[in-house]
Amino acid sequence: MFCGKKCSLFCLFMSIWGTIQLLLMGMSYSLNSVSMIETLPLKETYKSLQQFRTECDHLNRTLALRCYVAAIIYALFALCSYICFCTRKRQANMQKIQPKSEKALLQKNRFT
Fold first, then answer.
1. 20-24, 74-78, 105-109: which has the minimum mean pLDDT?
2. Which of 19, 61, 80, 111 ranks highest by number of CB atoms within 10 Å?
3. Number of structural domains the chain divides into
C-alpha cells in the first residue's frame, strides 16, 4: 500500500498515542478544566465576570469539538496503518513460504 512494515507500525503507534492524547485534551476542555485556561484564545479585558464565563464556556466547547474531530482523524489514520501493516506482514509470510515449496519441488524432481 503506502509504506513498509516498520513505517506502518511506527505510524500505528504514533496514531494511537495521538488519539489518546487528543481524547484526553477534549475531555479536559469538555469539563472546563482550569488547567487548560491558558490555551484559550481569550481577550485581555472583559466588562463583567459573566461575559468572561460565557466566553470561556463557548471556547471550551469549540476546542473540545476540534480535539474530538482530530482524534477521529488520527484513529482513521491508525486504521489505515494497521491495514498496511497486516498487508505487508501477509506478503512477507507468503514470500517466506513460497520459496521453500519451490525448493522442495525442485528436490523431488531431481530424485525421480
1. 105-109
2. 19
3. 1
Q: How far is 80 from 4, CA to CA, in rounded Å?
A: 13
Q: What are phi and psi of 78, to 5 degrees?
A: -65, -40
Mean pLDDT throughout 2-13? 86
| Stronger pLDDT, 27 or 95, i.e. the higher one | 27
Cell of 61: 466547547
**Domain that residue 89 falls in:** 5-111
Helix 5-30 to helix 49-111 angle (10° resolution) is 160
Burial of 111 (0-12, 13-18, 19+ CB in 10 A): exposed
Where does residue 55 rank: exposed (0-12), middle (13-18), buried (19+ CB within 10 A)?
middle
Residue type, 23: L
Handedness of CA 88, 83, 65, 21 (dihedral sign): negative
Residue 46 CA to residue 42 CA, distance in Å, equals 9
